[in-house]
Structure formats: structure tokens, C-alpha cells
Amino acid sequence: MVSLLRNGPRMLFIGTSKRCEFIDFMNEKFKAEILDVDVIFDKSDEFNTIIYLFSELKPNVNKSDVTDALLIRNDVAKVLCRLVEQNGSRLIDAIRPAPQTVLMRAVGDMEQMLLRIQRDFGGKVGSFNYCIESGCEATTIIGLTDKPLSRTAKFSDMHHNFLSLNQDYAALHRDLTMEAFRYLNSGLDKKDWHELEIRIYDVYGAFQLHHERLMEVLDSLELGIVIGEAWSKDYPKFLFPVEVYSVHFLTFVKPSEFKRIIFGLEHLSDGTRIVDYDLYIKNKKVYWREIMNNKMKTSREVEALKARSEVYSRLDEKTKVALAELEERILGTRK
Prior knowledge:
Alpha-Beta Plaits, five-stranded mixed sheet, alpha+beta
């Protein structure tokens, strides 16, 4: 539900005196994308390979010395195999791995979290360019973001400081994975996680579809962890029980923010209300008017559509497509 750590793209430094021939070869084999050195990281994911080309590969690299930056939509092992096969034509003068990158999810004070990791592992804090230029093939660069790691990480989403470490990558990755929750909590400054209950109710009984729709959003936004699910009873009127499906959720998000998210999911874009997602904290219901910034009289539908728009602006296209399909199926249960 919450991705706490993932790898960044693998990067290679390559020196070549046959720049055009090398680029033609990479285009032929991999349909390489030539991108600006300042945006190439934003366009990549953990299973891609970035190649930085230099006319001469010196012991210490500098961004200004990069002649081209190539993005390959394949893993580094496949790229290296093709380069080994081809280098009889001497396309490569020198090659070495660039520092590896690890991206970690953060909440709250990201600088505090970064310093906590530095206190445990050492290393130097600086900009990404500094970490790349001062690093070597044994360097691992740790970057923090408060955005979901399930999507492509952009520099605009990253904390401005990174941590550069010269340690065994496999051991470091294992230790960071084991301690990821502890580091995540270090940025919360002793604030508690919230245990919430979402009660799903639909008079037409399409509980499974509404559950799938809710999970699509919670997974995409990576808001926390499901810790339990069960059928239960609710009493909207005295001595009038209705069956609901309850999802118990552990989150670092404020209950008011969480309520606004699920409130926005109760309506379709045309205003049609398709479900009740009621939020409870310690068996106390959170009402929609409690989360309004403007306490003056307002329409529930208007506020729900505003909340829906806010939620959808945070979702990736894949999730939006999945939600559209689920909403169409939900409407089919009303016929």
C-alpha cells in the first residue's frame, strides 16, 4: 500500500570518439531517447538505463562535459550485453558505472529524515549534481520524496538535498529496506499514525466494485496500510441496521485530509452519488461539514465535486482509466 523504497535508474558513463556511430547503434538496438541532461532522470524509472556520453571519460566527471544523455527503456544487463557484442567496432573508448540511486518515501520533515540516515550510515549531503560529480562507481545516492514511489520520480518532487555514500550497495539496500519505516517515522517528529475505519455502503449492493475503486485510489496515492477488513452493521436510523463493508486503515495522513479524499469519491463527475464512504475514528463518525474550510452554508454536491477534482488531479492516468471502467460497471448495477 505504501512503497517506502525503490531503485532509481541505472546509469553508465561512456567515453567515445565515435559519438554519432554510437548513438546510431543505440537507436537501432534500443530506440534510445536523446534527452536534456537536466530532465532525463525525470523521464526514467527504475528498470531503465541512462547513458551519459563523454568525448573523453575522465576520473572525475562534470555535467558540462556530457555530450549527450541517452535514455534506454531496458535494464542495464541487456544494454551491457549489446555493448559487449558490438565493441569489436571500437565504439567505446571507456566505460564505468555511475553511482547508483535509491529513492525513499518521506513524510513531514525530509531534512530531518535525511540527517537521521546520515547519522546511521555516514556520507555527505549535497545536491544531486554534486553527488554524481563527486561520486565513484561504488557510490550510492539516496534521495527523498513525499510523493508516491509507484510513479516516475521527478526532481521537482525530490527533496533538494541528497545523501552520497561509498558503501556496499547490496548491504546498504538491505539495511535501508529493513529500517524504512523507522526512517519514515523520523520525519513525523513523534506524531502518531491514525487508525481509521472506512465503512462502505451501497443500497444496490455493489460492495466489491466500490472496494476495488477505493483501493485503486489508496494504492495510487500510497496513503497507508490496510490492517483489516470485515462485514459489519451500521445504524443510520434508530433500530434500523444496514450491512456495510469496513476497511481498517493505518495512515500518516490527517483524518480531515483523508475524509476529503473519500468524500470526493462518493460522486461521479456529473454529480451522481454512487456510494457512501463513511469515515470513523474510534467509532466516532467524521461528517463532511467538519472538513469544510468555509463553514458557511454550502451544497454537499458542490463540495463533493470540488473534492473529487482535487483527488483526480493527484492520480496518474493508469488509475484514472481503471476508475472510469469501475464507475461504468457500478452504473450498470443500477439498471
